[in-house]
Design goal:
3-stranded antiparallel β-sheet, 5-stranded parallel β-sheet, about 550 residues, 3 domains, 25 helices, alpha/beta, Rossmann fold, elongated, about 5% strand
């Protein structure tokens, strides 16, 4: 009996037992390649089906998942989503949407692999492809780095979305932001008009995804790292011109010279100048130190017709932040209008729109006539929430702090060398980073809902003057002492001189009052164009339709 003549091949679908070349034994041999291809394809289809059903089960209703995340249906209407409350159903809906996205990626892998099997003349390769599950497991990993995958796997709040570029960088952050917009239905425009104007040659303001839009595969720079440390949401701009940037940008120059004038003198002079413009002044008061300085200065220096030329806009949060000032100096004494905030619904999921804020939208509605006055740029004059929010830094060791920046220490030292005062402690360093790299962002961030660029000229940020900047550079010892409560103490003294409120003077801490958002535009250029496409300016199709490749001019 010939050896192995009574045995079956290890794979009866793809092999047969046949005599070897010597004719002395039966050995398994491949069937016709076409049969092997068919078997391999069928097995791979089964593998894919098993994988997606186990790891990415389809939701009962894809449209219900998307509608719930977009806030279009209520908790009671979302009957096909697991969970008893809004958060649980939102998690289930996001898992469903992610499963759909994963299946689309896996299907693309399936089609490509089947094509490889169908054209291969190597039976070993065909069978190996039919059992290769690794590309399926990596469907997201290959397309999204681990950090991206983690970010996109949870229902984000506004704070998480605002930090996407800090956590993921420009390129991955852009992709993740676009997917977030798509998942939560924040962009509904399907077409846009073609831009027929003349773009400038530099940007005054740029959202971080502009870096990817102009075609740069971006690696975070030293300037990006420094901007992140002082909470830049937009692309930082070095006003000294020391550090290279990824975009062609233009920021207000740092004035030269010094001043011997006091904070009080400069604040009073600023108020007098604003009244002298003979326009209706629309003051946005948050209850914080900076906007309270602005309103105090205007009241201290008010002309006889002030009541007819001043309106104070505030929110419920403004009163909470400084109730005594509202009661003693605004309520019933000034023309005051409350800016209402949207109420978060309790019966459905509500994705906080990170491209809009109630205050910014209200500013846009008011800026067409008169002058809008804000407390913006006070943080840049006085320093940074980077140390006000972390009191340990106030008296911390500078070298210990800079140890976390050892890889960009040369660039930091170069920027410090451009500072008009010696950088010998953390608070001076953080002030200088804020003052030199964040000025332009803060100058424009509250105006990002404005649609008519001509109206930008009607903004008056109270601290946006050369005199305030010279005061800041001339008074390194007057921005903060050695406690968080002493931050902006000359400004609080100024308010105290008018109000007599020693509690606010001695205890008021820095708070984030504006609730900063990115805003709809990708940027503002130096020709006065507000660069946007759709409600969010995240759609590649809409951006291409409106600007074609014209935005590439802003690549550095």
């Amino acid at each position: 009996m010939i050896p192995k003549s009574n045995q079956s091949p290890d794979d009866i679908e793809t092999k047969v037992m046949a005599l070897n070349a010597a004719g002395n034994a039966y050995e398994p041999q491949w069937r016709d390649i076409q049969i092997v291809r068919q078997v391999a394809a069928r097995r791979y289809e089964a593998l894919v089906a098993q994988h997606v059903e186990h790891h990415y089960p389809l939701p009962d209703n894809e449209q219900q998942c998307r509608d719930f995340l977009a806030g279009k249906i209520t908790l009671d209407q979302a009957t096909q989503l697991d969970g008893d409350d809004v958060d649980a159903k939102a998690d289930a809906a996001l898992r469903g949407v992610r499963s759909i996205d994963a299946r689309q990626k896996i299907d693309a892998i399936r089609v490509a692999t089947l094509a490889e099997i169908g054209t291969s003349d190597d039976p070993d390769e065909c069978i190996a492809l039919s059992v290769n599950e690794q590309p399926l497991c990596n469907a997201f990993v290959d397309d999204e780095c681990a950090a991206c995958n983690e970010y996109l796997s949870v229902v984000p709040d506004a704070n998480l979305v605002r930090s996407v570029f800090q956590n993921l960088g420009s390129t991955c952050g852009t992709d993740a932001l676009r997917k977030t917009v798509d998942t939560f239905g924040l962009e509904t425009d399907i077409t846009t008009t073609v831009f027929n104007g003349m773009l400038g040659d530099k940007l005054l303001l740029a959202r971080p995804d502009m870096v990817s839009v102009v075609g740069i595969d971006h690696t975070p720079t030293a300037l990006d790292r420094i901007g992140r440390a002082v909470h830049c949401l937009w692309v930082p701009q070095d006003r000294t011109g020391t550090l290279p940037a990824s975009l062609k940008m233009e920021a207000p120059a740092i004035p030269t010279g010094s001043t011997s004038e006091t904070f009080e003198q400069i604040a009073d002079a600023r108020a007098v100048a604003l009244w002298a413009e003979n326009q209706h002044l629309k003051v946005y008061w948050s209850g914080g130190i900076d906007s309270t300085v602005a309103l105090t200065a205007l009241m201290r220096n008010a002309p006889a017709d002030a009541a007819d030329r001043l309106t104070v806009f505030y929110t419920a949060g403004s009163i909470v932040e400084y109730p005594a000032f509202y009661q003693m100096h605004i309520d019933g004494k000034l023309n005051a209008v409350e800016v209402t905030q949207p109420l978060k619904p309790s019966d459905r999921y509500w994705a906080e729109n990170i491209f809009h804020s109630a205050v910014c939208e209200h500013i846009a509605s008011q800026i067409g006539d008169g002058l809008v006055v804000t407390g913006e740029l006070g943080d840049q004059v006085f320093g940074s929430a980077g140390f006000a929010n972390d009191p340990t830094r106030i008296n911390g060791d500078l070298e210990e702090f800079l140890a976390d920046f050892s890889d960009i220490r040369d660039e930091i030292d170069a920027l410090s060398a451009a500072c008009p005062v010696p950088v010998n402690n953390i608070v001076t360093l953080m002030w200088w980073w804020n003052f030199s790299t964040k000025w332009s962002e803060v100058k424009y961030r509250s105006l990002t809902c404005v649609s008519d660029a001509a109206h930008l000229a009607n903004a008056r940020h109270f601290f946006d003057t050369d005199d305030f900047q010279r005061w800041s550079m001339s008074n390194d010892d007057k921005r903060i002492r050695n406690t968080a409560e002493s931050y902006k103490w000359p400004a609080k003294d100024y308010i105290y001189d008018w109000t007599g409120d020693s509690f606010y003077r001695d205890n008021k801490l820095k708070e984030g009052s504006l609730r900063v958002r990115w805003g709809p535009p990708l940027g503002i250029d130096n020709a006065g164009n507000i660069i946007s496409a759709g409600q969010t300016s995240t759609s590649e199709a809409l951006i291409q339709q409106r600007y074609s490749d014209a935005l590439r001019r802003f690549a550095a």
